[in-house]
Amino acid sequence: MRKDYLQNPVKHIKINGTLTVNQLIQQFQRSGSFGAGKLARACNIYEKMLRDKDCTVFLALSGALVPAGMRTLIADLIRAKLVDVIVTTGANMVHDAIEALDGHHYKGNWIVDDYDLYRQHIFRIYDVFVAEEDYVKLDYQLAEMYRKIAIERKGTRLSSNEFAFELGKRLKDPNSILHAAYEEHVPIFIPAVRDSEFGYIHLLHASQENQKNILEVSAFKETPLICQICEKSPRNGMIVIGGGVPRNTIQSAAIAAKKGIDYAVVITMDRPETGGLSGSTLRESISWGKVKGEADKIMVIGDALVMFPMIVASVIERLGSDFTRTSGSKRRNPETKRKK
Amino acid sequence: MRKDYLQNPVKHIKINGTLTVNQLIQQFQRSGSFGAGKLARACNIYEKMLRDKDCTVFLALSGALVPAGMRTLIADLIRAKLVDVIVTTGANMVHDAIEALDGHHYKGNWIVDDYDLYRQHIFRIYDVFVAEEDYVKLDYQLAEMYRKIAIERKGTRLSSNEFAFELGKRLKDPNSILHAAYEEHVPIFIPAVRDSEFGYIHLLHASQENQKNILEVSAFKETPLICQICEKSPRNGMIVIGGGVPRNTIQSAAIAAKKGIDYAVVITMDRPETGGLSGSTLRESISWGKVKGEADKIMVIGDALVMFPMIVASVIERLGSDFTRTSGSKRRNPETKRKK
Amino acid sequence: MRKDYLQNPVKHIKINGTLTVNQLIQQFQRSGSFGAGKLARACNIYEKMLRDKDCTVFLALSGALVPAGMRTLIADLIRAKLVDVIVTTGANMVHDAIEALDGHHYKGNWIVDDYDLYRQHIFRIYDVFVAEEDYVKLDYQLAEMYRKIAIERKGTRLSSNEFAFELGKRLKDPNSILHAAYEEHVPIFIPAVRDSEFGYIHLLHASQENQKNILEVSAFKETPLICQICEKSPRNGMIVIGGGVPRNTIQSAAIAAKKGIDYAVVITMDRPETGGLSGSTLRESISWGKVKGEADKIMVIGDALVMFPMIVASVIERLGSDFTRTSGSKRRNPETKRKK
Amino acid sequence: MRKDYLQNPVKHIKINGTLTVNQLIQQFQRSGSFGAGKLARACNIYEKMLRDKDCTVFLALSGALVPAGMRTLIADLIRAKLVDVIVTTGANMVHDAIEALDGHHYKGNWIVDDYDLYRQHIFRIYDVFVAEEDYVKLDYQLAEMYRKIAIERKGTRLSSNEFAFELGKRLKDPNSILHAAYEEHVPIFIPAVRDSEFGYIHLLHASQENQKNILEVSAFKETPLICQICEKSPRNGMIVIGGGVPRNTIQSAAIAAKKGIDYAVVITMDRPETGGLSGSTLRESISWGKVKGEADKIMVIGDALVMFPMIVASVIERLGSDFTRTSGSKRRNPETKRKK
Predict the structure, then answer these.
(1) How far apart (Å, rounded) are the C-alpha atoms in residues B168 and B184?
(2) Helical H runs in chain B?
(3) Phi and psi at residue A149, to the nearest 5°
(4) Which of D8, D35, D306 sits opposite C39 (nearest CB)?
(5) Of A114, A249, C80, C203, which has the highest C-beta tally within 10 A?
């Protein structure tokens, strides 16, 4: 019916004085259009995931989120039990470890002489700078950890989440994502663990050990665990920052578990037209059974460094300080059992 | 020197409880990277423009901002004297007039059968719907206004800003951008006025009048005024939403005035690689003298429906309720003189 | 039925030896997916427009196409009668005039010190450079043309297409778009004519003439003509490069003419999510009646400097050297009549 | 000097009759601006890589290239010895295997009811459809291959390139990328092998085998090999389609080998502003030492399904039918030695 199309007038955004983040998001909810409407919807969906006691919240991390300032935010989400499972690129955990070992990321500039940076042994990530010595320190300290883990684990092959767990145990920085996840029993999956400094630290470790007693990480060993988490959880929600391997891993686990995602928020700048997974729409994901047809879902086109903190701030404000949530890991994380 | 590159460590974003919009922006200021750093910088620059008593603030509007919920926000900025000159597409003023004449925009959806909408006489702007009858009402009421303006002005050719002024005088809705600008003597330039429903209302008007005594709008008449405003103002700042004709018009006025823009914020999703003006960098604008080499400037890549309200909310919070500003139009707007 | 979805297997692209452009496009037709499928479809649609004797072909130009190398291509299309009507930004015609007056555009670089360019009086358009002296020459020679046109036209107001026609008559360079259009009676509409150097040349002209006997261009006068062209043509096709005012002008003319576009190719990098017209899908245009529900239409996401020449090369190859087409302007262009 | 900026005038593109792909690219070379200039430069760089007898050519594949029609093109490049090493997502090899086992990809549509596709057991990749039964067939046939490989390899852990080699040996389709690479001794690295159907086939395989005698793939084992290839090659060139793990893997190998890439072509739609590796500029890569400061390099912003075939067609035309090249794998591929 025609009137169904014309039910909800756009209410114009009004800013009269100081607004909290959630008050602004509520304005976006009322205007409800373009990126503002999508962002408001993303907040609603994340809130729903958290209030649904039967939902496991997966967080996918890709892009240089940790170098750019999201490290504490994510560690705090883990400690507040507002995320249950993390799937990430190796690089984000490498940068987490750099700071855990007293290294830094620096505010830089995107217009700079990169060859001069190269000569100065400074690496650039858009407008973030990293000093080579922080990488060198990382390499040697982590190679030493690899050695100890290999000894402890006596040649058994680790999954990427066990590898993350072992690192988190040893990186005793309260702001570290790896350490917070270790303490809170939040599994961190790193499906492409080799494609990051972790891979080259492995080269160093292997050369130090003369190729003997080296740490073994299995490419496939993590697969059953993430599928089981999906399978055992009555409902599954995902928040995807970026796309790539982390998004694909969660969606594929949902298929393998024959469940389909129930709640989905994707924050990305990628678009569907060139056919890559990172930009694929959540509607496309329905055809595969990755996301349920009736799922609450939204794709926010924007920079995650702005969008994700807004979503978190809005939802934390909504939940209030009394809100508590039992982490999904309490029921599920096999690491917990293994520790006993 | 190497240490110059490594001075300011990224401080990680922390959200512990309810934050105001500006508190979140301050977090972005401290992390300072990627889109978050740029957004924080944009807030700083707009604040500076407003605190600089010698700066005229130009606001460029393109894209469907009014249909999507920015109408009241912009009208309020005009009334609060936080913007001095507007350069806009015709379409945004058309949609302002639609609401001033009791029409509406509706929250819709971007996945919809457009042919069904066509049959139902509903027009779609991404996820906003407009009913054809609101356009028809607009057409007839504005054609009547055109007739009266033509009679009053007795065949003199209007500039686009005089045209906007005459409409604003007659659209007596306090939330109307055109009306607020009329009341506050903020000139609204519409360089491509013909490329919008205003052009087709002119067809209707001309047919109603048998091509006699029709409203004349000159393509070039507005040019000297906008150049003079730039020229007489000690400093000029621009906030560009989108790009296209409105951005180009302000930048070209700055060249013609031999001044160059002093403060610039551009919010867009366009990129420079395909060479269009909308995505051109502010650095590129320096080569032309459109923007000064030492200008405070930033390009925010993002959806204006999210970014611009955040900037406004942050800056209003910073300014506080006691802040007052003398509108640039007090000194400058020739409309003011004409009225006496 | 399920089998309807699974009828046409992707045939993989095969390059064995030298291919003509159209042979490669035929490969894209057979693979048929992502950008390659869309590009092949765009070629088919342009070919159809040209073979449909009752179709008027509108070409919309936005972005810095002329500075970057598309000037001769467009002039040749006009002379070959493969385009009937042009709607363009002012800037493209300004750059056409610069070369007609022996100015140049230079291959430059996008990584360059823009402040040094500014000091050297060189303007940058992404990776194209223009020398200020070529603008100065343009300004003075066109101001002189404005003077002569104003005298000839004795104070009657010109439409933007009459303005373009008068310039084309005087710019006697066979490679000039304006001149080719003048000779071939192809109307060039410049709805935002004031927003370009043409506007600032008008300032110069007016100051030289002491504000007397100055060239008058009407904002609205062109509107009836473009609507009539649409109305009288049994079918209308558009090829849009970029978006903005030129795309909007053609689509609005189609509504005013109560016709709807029959064939549409849009080449752009803009996307729909932020609601701007330039990125709006052709499906969205159906709701308005701008494009017909059953229209042959495709939106190619890509750089026009690559995509448009590929389309033209493919279609010229298909048409062969014997193909002739009667230009739509023969039947329609009022300029032709006016000349007699 | 000023004249240095103004040396090379843009020569306008001219299409007079049938052009070969390389003739069109030569036009782009002469116009030299925006996307056309970049594409022409990419062709020059790939040609240079191939004519440099001391250069190893790495090809990075991400995005759904095989489903969309690039399978034969890549297999032919391998057989023609125009690529020496491949680094790919798992998914592209999964889709290669689907076709090797007589499955298909179908030309579909991006506007479709995805829930209907879901009910019909059809999966969508933008505008490509895949039938579930082709995945099921793949699962069972590959699980059987896994079993045989596990038996042959007797529990030794494979690297991802050994895994690809074993599959290629068994998939006896001449158009298969995996098979062509096997025959030509071109190593295929799949650093995130687990993140694709290969991971879920492993689940199936493990369940069939009751978790005994299962195929082991090591996450890190491939790392030394790709580093050695870089190290031993006097010069290294990369062509990156997309970005993600494959691009990162090649660039990281270049650092580990202390070499830096000498020639680089990246084809992507990603942009640098949000800080992800996929959109990072090649200049940024210089700061890391991933790409040499003096490298011949270009980033082409566009759809790889159009851009890469154009580059290949242009370069094959330039090389002519007499050109022969000794594959880098002749000297390097350890698989070759292992086979003896």
Answers:
(1) 11
(2) 2-5, 21-31, 34-51, 71-79, 90-100, 114-119, 132-153, 160-170, 177-184, 197-208, 223-232, 244-256, 282-288, 304-319, 328-332, 334-339
(3) -65, -45
(4) D306
(5) A249
For residue range D107-137, what is the model confidence (pLDDT) as tens digits?
999 999 999 999 999 999 999 999 999 999 9
From the centroid of its chain, how far is CA A25?
23
Domain hosting C254: range is 33-323
Q: Which strand (E) or helix (H) includes residue A239? A: strand A235-241
Q: H helices within A185-263, ranges in order? A: 197-208, 223-232, 244-256
Cβ contacts of B245 on chain C, cutoff 8 Å: 192, 195, 244-245
C-beta of residue C315 within 8 angstroms of C-beta of residue C308: no
The pLDDT-based confidence of A328 (bands split at 50, 70, 90) is low
Please state the domain count of chain C. 1
What's the gap in Å between the CA of C34 and the closest CA on chain A?
A: 6
pLDDT at B133 over 70: yes
pLDDT of residue C326: 85
Output phi, psi for D220, to 5 deg.
-100, -10
What would the DSSP string read from start to end of D157-200? PBPHHHHHHHHHHH---TT-HHHHHHHHT--EE-TTTTSSHHHH
* Largest interatomic CA distance in chain B: 75
User: Distance between CA atoms of C100 and C168, rounded to whole angstroms?
Assistant: 10
Q: Calculate mean pLDDT across residues C245-259.
A: 97
Is the pTM of the predicted complex or chain greater than 0.80?
A: yes
CATH assignment of the domain containing C146: 3.40.910.10
Asked if C204 and C138 touch (Cβ cutoff 8 Å), the reply is no
Helix axes A132-153, A160-170, angle to 10 degrees: 110
Residue B200 maps to a domain: yes
Distance CA B117, CA B124 (A): 8
Residue B340 maps to a domain? no
Q: What's the number of CA atoms in the CB half-sphere (13 Å) around residue C287?
A: 26
Closest residue in D to C15 (Cα–Cα) = D313
To the nearest whole Å, the CA of C130 is away from the closest chain B CA by: 10
Look at residue C328 and tell me if it is in a domain: no
Main-chain dihedrals φ then ψ at residue B66, nearest 5 degrees: -65, -50
DSSP string spanning A13-64? P---S--BHHHHHHHHHHH--HHHHHHHHHHHHHHHHHH-TTEEEEEEE-SS
Classify residue C33 as exposed, middle or buried by CB count within 10 Å of its CB (0-12, 13-18, 19+): buried
Closest Cα partner for C169 from C183, C155, C157?
A: C183
Segment holding A163, helix H or strand E: helix A160-170
Residues in C 288-307 with any Cβ partner in B closer than 8 A: 288-289, 293, 303-305
pLDDT tens-digit map of D127-185? 999 999 999 999 999 999 999 999 999 879 999 999 999 999 999 999 999 999 999 99
Cross-chain CB nearest to C72 (options D14, D24, D35): D14
ipTM value, please give it: 0.96
Is C25 part of any domain?
A: no
